[in-house]
Amino acid sequence: MASSLLSRTLLGHRLSQFSSSLTHKPLIFSSLFNKRQLCVQAEPTYTPYKTSGRPYRFMASSAIDRRTNFSMQSLSTNDPVVSVDWLHANLREPDMKVFEFIYGPGTLSKHMLSHSCYFLEFEVMVVMYDIMVLDASWYMPDEQRNPIQEYQVAHIPGALFFDVDGIADRTTKLPHMLPSEEAFAAAVSALGIQNNDGLVVYDGKGIFSAARVWWMFRVFGHDRVWVLDGGLPRWRASGYDVESSASSDAILKASAASEAIEKVYQGQTAGPVTFQTKFQPHLVWTLDQVRRNIEEKTHQHIDARSKPRFDGAAPEPRKGIRSGHVPGSKCIPFPHMLDASQTLLPADELEKRFQEEGISLEGPVVTSCGTGVTACVLALVLSLAMCSWSISTFMFNIYPYSP
């Protein structure tokens, strides 16, 4: 079950850095899913073994100086969340770069050095990129909150604003549906984002709409994207500074992104494109796929909305839309993934939430909600458990069989 998946996740973290490139200190690996750190230490031993065909990856951050020293704090690219402490530590470094170490398949020799840590001998590709921070705050209509105004009042230093409602499909009346590849590329290019950038996304509630933007980048082939665990509330509760005014450049970029989307849907040239998309169809489902799954049951279907909305006992927040749920789906409200501070629960608690509804983390899952926002919170958690998942972003209430 999930415990075996977590074991495989942690096994991928039990790697050390090249002895020829790094200082000889114990390497700390952060597993953000179970909120633990692993130090790869043991008695002297020598064990040759073969890797699988899947590359190993981890990420290290460092301020770059003439000696190009690496930080000993590493972060796996398999973990889709980062902590506020990690982000704060790296934001303080003006020349901070992120290094991604990609290990391909082959023979690895594991041996001990004087400092009693494992080192692995094999070919490694090092990719270096910058980190950008995105404020992706969005709120339900009945909350009467304005995300761009709140961004201008307080945001994490250097963050740009990502408009969830604006960077969306303009050919439908349904809210913030996934835009076309061309439209998404034009919008994020207008924000100044490139394919070699790493992205940390947060929102004003904790973990809410930031997960949606994380999923959008993943759908369009950009894997170097992380959600800030606890978002802006956790950042401020930790005593970290916020900027109380947005720069003119940030506001211009947010406006340019919206204009770029509009131009694409009007058939006009949007401007230089710095971001190339690579659509991942397995990460998004259509209404027809959901229909077929009712009969074929190839995927477990989880609904992220509240139980009253799922049961049809409470009205939907948008007028004229029926309550109820897709036949065969199960309800795991997204807030059940979070603690009181709106950060992710410990691994055992998350596993329990799925087990209680009979969801196997070893089987494929599709998640849905009202308009494709909170379903992404469940997908974020499933990604932490290395579960196979997709997101159904259709507005479920147009489904003809809903009660």
TrEMBL record:
One of its GO terms (molecular function) is thiosulfate-cyanide sulfurtransferase activity. Coiled coil: none annotated. Residues 301-310 have a biased composition (Basic and acidic residues). Keywords: Repeat, Transferase. Residues 130-244, 295-385 form the Rhodanese domain. SUPFAM superfamilies: Rhodanese/Cell cycle control phosphatase (SSF52821). Pfam families: Rhodanese. The keyword Repeat applies. Residues 301-322 are annotated as: Disordered. InterPro entries: Rhodanese-like_dom, Rhodanese-like_dom_sf, Thiosulphate_STrfase_CS, TST/MPST-like. PROSITE patterns: RHODANESE_1, RHODANESE_3. CDD domains: TST_Repeat_1 (cd01448), TST_Repeat_2 (cd01449). One of its GO terms (cellular component) is mitochondrion. This is Thiosulfate/3-mercaptopyruvate sulfurtransferase 2-like isoform X2. The gene is LOC110428094.
